[in-house]
Design brief:
Length: 335
């Protein structure tokens, strides 16, 4: 199936994933003007009671910045942006935030932790597409049945809330029945990984952890440095912090006074998501999420520099495979 218009003509087939707290307008604008889809969780736009609605201001700022870029450089238009909605009963802002995204005609919606047909209908009412993130084939089928346009396959190794399935197993099961947009999440930190995702049957990659170590990211300096110093062995998989299984940096857990190798289990009925109004302090605010792909991330750089690197690696991987595998594979297939 041809990709929706919003996902065509990207510089490289990549979506910058919505990072809790970290993704802000600066990061999203930098991602989009570099040629990839940028995104942020709606709940990142927080306001105290009585203040102006921050999400409305963020969407205005992003839209105006991308419009200005397109007018100044029409030969290199910005990619569209996405907003992530947590579709879970703990999100008291969901209905309001959906209304704001409809008002601003947000082009791409990413939904998580719940598939609700009314959310999909709201997005479709303004011509948007919805990608729902899932960790297995069961939830993938449920989301598509309720009206999602595409899927984010969150495989083992992804940062934050993550699944435990091999990306090869997850993608092949989805592609048995679904030919719409699918993007793969899980240790996507190099251009080669984006091409590998496509080889498995995905339409592109979905990357987050590498963007934590960028100048524009709203992350503490210690968080950025921990990303650049770490590798796959520095990641632990736990459901303690939110009630949902996810990957976190071991050094941040140690710094909080806990043993990352002896964490307790959480009550899955007591998910710990922010209301977004800034009124409730976070018990685990210094426990930092990360995927297993950070071994490729060694410096804090501007977002544009990171996208340049990913684009160069993606092109080099294509050339390398064409030169070493292209002709033998074609000849064998012809026989």
């Amino acid at each position: 199936m041809a990709l929706p218009e919003q996902l065509q003509n990207l510089r490289i087939p990549l979506i910058g994933s919505p990072l809790f707290i970290v993704s802000n307008p600066e990061l999203v604008i930098a991602q989009c003007t570099s040629g990839i889809v940028g995104s942020f969780p709606a709940l990142n736009a927080r306001e105290a009671p009585g203040e102006a609605i921050e999400l409305d201001k963020w969407l205005t700022r992003i839209s105006e910045a991308l419009d200005a870029h397109n007018q100044s450089d029409p030969d290199h238009p910005a990619a569209p942006f996405a907003v992530n909605q947590i579709v879970h009963k703990s999100n008291a802002r969901l209905e309001r935030d959906v209304e704001i995204c409809v008002k601003h005609k947000v082009p791409i919606w990413i939904t998580s932790l719940g598939a609700q047909d009314w959310v999909y209908e709201a997005a479709h009412s303004v011509g948007a597409i919805v990608l729902h993130d899932i960790i297995n084939d069961f939830f993938a089928r449920k989301a598509i049945a309720k009206g999602a346009d595409g899927l984010i396959a969150v495989a083992a190794g992804a940062g934050g809330h993550a699944g435990a399935l091999s990306p090869m197993a997850l993608i092949q099961e989805i592609r048995e029945w679904f030919d719409g947009p699918v993007y793969l999440s899980g240790a996507i930190a190099k251009g080669d990984s984006i091409l590998a995702a496509q080889a498995m049957g995905a339409d592109g990659g979905y990357a987050g952890s590498a963007f934590i170590a960028t100048d524009e990211a709203n992350a503490a300096e210690g968080y950025k440095q921990m990303i650049t110093a770490g590798g796959a062995s520095d990641i632990v998989y736990s459901d303690l912090f939110t009630g949902v299984w996810g990957n976190y940096l071991k050094p941040s857990i140690t710094a909080a006074g806990m043993d990352p190798d002896a964490l307790e289990r959480s009550d899955p009925s007591a998910m710990n998501f922010a209301s977004g109004d800034g009124s409730k302090a976070k018990k685990w605010k210094d426990i930092w999420g990360s995927g297993q792909g950070i071994g490729r991330v060694r410096d804090v750089v501007p977002t544009a520099t990171l996208v340049d690197r990913l684009a160069d690696e993606y092109a080099a991987a294509q050339t390398r495979l064409a030169g070493t595998l292209g002709w033998p594979i074609q000849a064998k297939a012809a026989e």
